[in-house]
């Protein structure tokens, strides 16, 4: 039996550039060591994403005419570097009437929706080439809403990919909540999945446990309902957040003063907690399988931690943060490449 390969991609707005840089190196090595036309979507059995990570997941799982991966990860990198300024743009007038997003959402959703529509068109969730788990949160029913492509053969669970990406990107204070319809016509009121799973790796694990991969992928080299012993999990973050909050400053910050810090802390803390839980889980395994969980999360170095900083200088700093991580972790990344090649079907 071959291992079930899971890819999990954190949220983080424009910081998704870091994810693309790391994935680009992995894809380039697959092309060198396996076949020149290699694309990431053909090497993973399940891809999970929150917010910006979900957008990347959808890009690499887009189908070509042969139901193989259509796009190289370079396509995702181009989308961020070329369209990021358009998506996260705040006009001078909006800054005057809505300073810091205090009166309503900081960024207009129109550019985001326009770019999602142009890229994905009427692609449906069920058409993605592999199982794909995308997170969001239902604010009316107060529960997580998880989109799963292999279950989307049921009309009640099928959506347009552009709508799913809009829902998982609806980060409070940045973009407005969104209402989307399933193909069945049911309406959901949703916000960013990063509110509860900015690092969706544990969600990916839970989903993999109940997925009949041999049946879904039509290949009996993969286990149905794999256990942790059967998995390789690669979890990629969008940069380690190192901003400190002074006790004296926050002691009497009040509700308004806590708006930005609490979102920042929630998103980084839940990512760290998931990493801790998965580390403990894999540490219970034998010495070989212990090494099948990878958390790749670079230091931001000179890049801004803001999710919407699209200055050209910051985009370059994000790229450099990703490249620096590759230089320092080439052996680990090459190890991942070899495991992906060995376990590809």
Which characteristics define this entry?
13 helices, Cytosolic phospholipase A2 catalytic domain, phospholipase activity, 8 strands, 8-stranded mixed β-sheet, 345 residues, alpha/beta, hydrolase, Acyl_Trfase/lysoPLipase
CATH superfamily: Cytosolic phospholipase A2 catalytic domain
Looking at CATH, which topology would you report?
Cytosolic phospholipase A2 catalytic domain
- How many DSSP-defined strands? 8
In whole angstroms, the N-to-C terminal distance is: 10 Å
**Helix-residue proportion:** 40-55%
Structural class: alpha/beta
Largest sheet: 8 strands, mixed
Radius of gyration: 19 Å
Q: What general outline do the C-alpha atoms trace?
A: globular
Count of helices?
Answer: 13
User: How many structural domains does the protein architecture include?
Assistant: 1
Strand content: 5-15%
Q: How are helices and strands ordered from N to C?
A: EHEHHHHEEHEEHHHEHHEHH
The overall pLDDT average reads: 89
What would CATH call the architecture? 3-Layer(aba) Sandwich
Q: Could you name the CATH class?
A: Alpha Beta
Model regions low in confidence, pLDDT < 50 over at least 5 residues = 90-107
Keywords: Hydrolase, Lipid degradation, Lipid metabolism
Active site: 51 (nucleophile), 192 (proton acceptor)
Protein name: Patatin
Domain PNPLA: 7-205
């Amino acid at each position: 039996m071959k291992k079930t390969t899971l890819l999990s991609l954190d949220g983080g707005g424009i910081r998704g550039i870091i994810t693309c840089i790391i994935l680009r190196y992995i894809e380039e090595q697959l092309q060198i060591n396996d076949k020149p036309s290699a694309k990431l979507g053909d090497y993973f059995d399940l891809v999970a994403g929150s917010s910006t990570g979900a957008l990347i997941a959808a890009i690499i799982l887009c189908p070509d005419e042969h139901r193989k991966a259509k796009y190289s990860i370079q396509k995702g990198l181009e989308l961020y570097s070329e369209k990021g300024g358009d998506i996260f743009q705040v006009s001078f007038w909006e800054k005057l009437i809505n300073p810091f997003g205090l009166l309503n959402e900081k960024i207009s959703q129109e550019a985001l929706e326009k770019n999602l529509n142009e890229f994905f068109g009427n692609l449906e969730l069920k058409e993605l080439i592999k199982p794909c788990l995308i997170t969001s949160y239902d604010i009316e029913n107060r529960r997580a809403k998880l989109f799963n492509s292999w279950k989307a053969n049921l009309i009640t669970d099928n959506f347009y990919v552009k709508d799913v990406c809009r829902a998982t990107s609806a980060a409070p204070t940045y973009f407005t909540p969104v209402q989307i319809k399933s193909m069945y016509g049911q309406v959901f009121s949703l916000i960013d999945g990063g509110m509860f799973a900015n690092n969706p790796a544990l969600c990916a694990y839970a989903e993999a446990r109940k997925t009949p991969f041999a049946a879904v992928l039509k290949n009996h080299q993969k286990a149905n309902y794999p256990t942790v012993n059967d998995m390789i999990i690669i979890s990629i973050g969008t940069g380690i957040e190192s901003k400190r909050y002074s006790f004296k400053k926050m002691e009497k910050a009040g509700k308004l003063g806590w708006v930005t810090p609490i979102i920042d802390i929630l998103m980084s803390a839940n990512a760290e907690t998931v990493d801790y839980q998965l580390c403990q889980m894999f540490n219970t395994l034998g010495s070989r399988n212990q090494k099948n969980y990878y958390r790749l999360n670079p230091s931001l170095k000179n890049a801004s931690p803001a999710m919407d900083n699209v200055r050209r200088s910051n985009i370059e700093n994000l790229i450099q943060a990703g490249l620096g991580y590759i230089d320092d972790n080439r052996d680990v990344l090459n190890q991942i490449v070899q495991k992906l090649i060995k376990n590809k079907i």
